[in-house]
Amino acid sequence: QVQLIESGGGLVQPGGSLRLSCAASGIILSAVAMGWYRQAPGKQRELVAIITGGGSTTYVDSVKGRFTISRDNAKNTVYLQMNSLKPEDTAVYYCHDYSRYQSWGQGTQVTVSS
After folding, report:
1. Which of 3, 12, 20, 56 has its CA 20 to 30 A from that of 96?
2. Residue 113 above 90 pLDDT?
3. pLDDT digit string (tens) for 7-24?
4. 3-7 and 18-25 beta bridge pairing
5. Cα(first)–Cα(last) distance of the chain, in Å?
6. Which phi and psi angles does 73 have, rounded to 5°?
7. Whose CA is closest to 10, among 111, 113, 106?
8. 3-state secondary structure of 57
9. Contacts of residue 113, Cβ cutoff 8 Å, sequence gap at least 6
10. For residue range 26-64, what is the model confidence (pLDDT) as tens digits?
């Protein structure tokens, strides 16, 4: 019964910013670790950022200093603020429970291009 719906993607120029949202139902985000993942064309899905139930965060080296994962417990929503976007950030972005498998959602497309 867990549903994770990603939104906020789009087409941006290099150096631009986007804020992705993951609206959750059937799961309490403050009680679990959530991750943002991305999958570029022809590539495997990779973990980008994690936020634990306690609020600590971890990032893959390639996005450190540029991306911020956060959570709004009242809205049961996790966010990914992406700044200084690069063409290599182009991918479909997904949110997912970091510790337990859930079905993958549709994701949201992020395209960084001039």
Report:
1. 12
2. yes
3. 999 999 999 999 999 999
4. antiparallel
5. 40
6. -65, -35
7. 111
8. strand
9. 11, 13, 14, 87, 90
10. 999 899 999 999 999 999 999 999 999 999 999 999 999
